[in-house]
């Protein structure tokens, strides 16, 4: 690992999966190249076969995706100590969650810029027959130039293969609870693409207010129930300081009725998103 990608020079993240280290590879006559090395551990009570199949599946999906708003994954390696490591491009500005936490909410221009980039990546993922299924600020990395990069395809699903016309529906709640769509709890089968869109809507609101809007999208959650109860009146009136096209698009994204919820491409074509400018790196 060190021969190919250089020596570890620091730790930039810790989680249940293990550590994320930064490795620096010396290139004669050029600047050192940095890589992110993510160590991967088995889940509790996970069998070896399931663990290796899960890692290979995630690597095959993530390494096949080529888009400026998706982190580049270069390699999956196993050390002499039986530790699996995924090698990715290094994003020096950290993750979106940390930025939100530090700023206690982003300016709408920042939030609009970021959501358009993330949406662009999601639209590409969906066009490849894949749904992410765990979109959240922690899974969005940032470069110093403000480019958003989607990471972590560990729970993603292939809903349509290249030779198929029909999609495969999902069942059961997947992802981080505050970002999980209501139909994942209420219906047996659901379209994972539309669940991703719901997560995007929650991400946008979290970016703006700096905190979760509800713990779970169930009517037993008082904050979610309040949202459901006041949707119609807010659509008619709402906060006059919020741009009408943005507000209307967000309500169509955070739409409990999946038949009325926007797809990624439909959201890209809304007045709000289509008129949003992003930085050159995005």
Automatic annotation (TrEMBL):
GO cellular component: cytosol
Stored InterPro entries: Kinase-like_dom_sf, Prot_kinase_dom, Protein_kinase_ATP_BS, Ser/Thr_kinase_AS
Catalyzed chemical reaction(s): L-threonyl-[protein] + ATP = O-phospho-L-threonyl-[protein] + ADP + H(+); L-seryl-[protein] + ATP = O-phospho-L-seryl-[protein] + ADP + H(+)
Pfam families in alphabetical order: Pkinase (PF00069)
Record protein name field: non-specific serine/threonine protein kinase
GO biological process per UniProt: intracellular monoatomic cation homeostasis
EC numbers, comma separated: 2.7.11.1
PROSITE patterns registered for this protein in UniProt: PROTEIN_KINASE_ATP (PS00107), PROTEIN_KINASE_DOM (PS50011), PROTEIN_KINASE_ST (PS00108)
Family: Belongs to the protein kinase superfamily. CAMK Ser/Thr protein kinase family. NPR/HAL subfamily. HAL5 sub-subfamily.
Residues of the Protein kinase domain: 6-273
MF annotations from Gene Ontology: ATP binding; protein serine/threonine kinase activity
Sites where the protein binds ATP: 38
Keywords noted in UniProt: ATP-binding, Kinase, Nucleotide-binding, Serine/threonine-protein kinase, Transferase
SMART domains: S_TKc
Organism this protein belongs to: Ascoidea rubescens DSM 1968
């Amino acid at each position: 690992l060190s021969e190919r990608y250089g020596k570890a020079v620091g730790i930039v993240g810790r989680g249940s999966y293990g550590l994320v280290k930064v490795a620096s590879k010396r290139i004669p006559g050029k600047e050192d190249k940095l890589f992110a090395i993510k160590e991967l551990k088995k889940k509790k009570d996970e069998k070896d076969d399931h663990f290796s199949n899960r890692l290979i599946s995630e690597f095959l999906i993530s390494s096949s995706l080529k888009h400026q708003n998706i982190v580049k994954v270069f390699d999956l390696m196993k050390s002499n100590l039986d530790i699996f490591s995924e090698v990715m491009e290094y994003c020096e500005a950290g993750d979106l969650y940390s930025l939100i936490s530090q700023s206690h909410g982003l300016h709408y221009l920042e939030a609009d810029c970021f959501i358009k980039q993330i949406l662009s990546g999601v639209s590409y993922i969906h066009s490849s027959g894949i749904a992410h299924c765990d979109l959240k600020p922690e899974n969005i990395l940032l470069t110093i130039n403000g480019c958003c990069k989607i990471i972590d395809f560990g729970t993603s699903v292939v809903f349509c293969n290249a030779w198929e016309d029909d999609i495969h529906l999902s069942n059961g709640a997947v992802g981080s609870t505050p970002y999980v769509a209501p139909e994942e709890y209420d219906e047996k089968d659901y379209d994972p693409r539309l669940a991703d869109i719901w997560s995007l809507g929650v991400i946008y609101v979290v970016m703006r207010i700096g905190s979760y809007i509800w713990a779970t999208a169930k009517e037993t959650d008082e904050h979610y129930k309040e949202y459901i109860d006041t949707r119609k009146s807010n659509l008619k009136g709402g906060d006059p300081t919020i741009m009408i096209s943005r507000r209307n698009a967000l309500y169509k994204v955070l739409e409990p009725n999946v038949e009325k919820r926007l797809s990624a491409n439909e959201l890209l074509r809304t007045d709000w998103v289509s008129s949003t400018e992003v930085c050159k790196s995005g």
